[in-house]
Amino acid sequence: YVNTVRWKKTVQNYTPTALMIILLINHLALRRFILNVQISKKIPFLNNAVFVTFLLLPYFKPASLQYIAPQLENVFNILKIFSLVVGLGLYIYNRKISRIILAIIVYEVVLFACTFINDGDYWRILVNCGSIIGFSMLMELGVKNDCRVIFKSIFFIYFIFVLVNLILIFMYPDGLAHDTYYYNKYNFLAIDNGLSPIFIPVISLSIIHAEFNKKASSLTFVLLVMISITVIITWSATGVMMWFLMMLYVVFVKSVFVVFLC
Fold first, then answer.
1. CA 206 → CA 70, 93, 99, 152, distances in Å?
2. For 38-51, what is each residue's pLDDT tens digit?
3. pTM tops 0.70, yes or no
């Protein structure tokens, strides 16, 4: 879950070969982590996919909303704060904090303190730090409580988002909006080059979700088709390279590692 949060900042630093290795290691590590984690108390709220989806939704805000609906920025920030409060409450209820969450909290507090001392944009960094802490808490508690629910919720969110993004690409081929500095064309989810950092973890999570829920295999296939069509239409060099590597990843993982992982 930390890799998903940080993906946009790190994915462009990896060579294609290293990216494939990282994806495979993540897949192995995540499945092993899911199968071996335990939680001190079962949390009934996190067994409700609708409730979990509502808590996670603000962390997956489409990039175009800041241009086509800037009034929703504060709404998403409020929802993130609510989600953080709920996550903290669930952690208190669970009475157990993991070392990774503690490390994330310490890191984000230091980051906020440095920004505040240097008179930076402390409100923006506060929202960013709170978002990372809240998302990490919810992901850890959700995976430990019932991993099927958390993956189902994320899959549902991005299935709808990818579908809407594809429809709007056909309706608005020139984009929904353009930024004022580089004049980049914004699709619903992101600019053309910005779709890759979204699609990479989505494909990986979708595969894992399908492994836990065989009934979702057909929807996973539909999602992969929609992503492929989106990549072909946008035809970004980054997107095409991502699509090619991810298709190799899908075939390789499904043919070699699934038996071992299951």
1. 30, 30, 27, 9
2. 555 567 778 888 88
3. yes
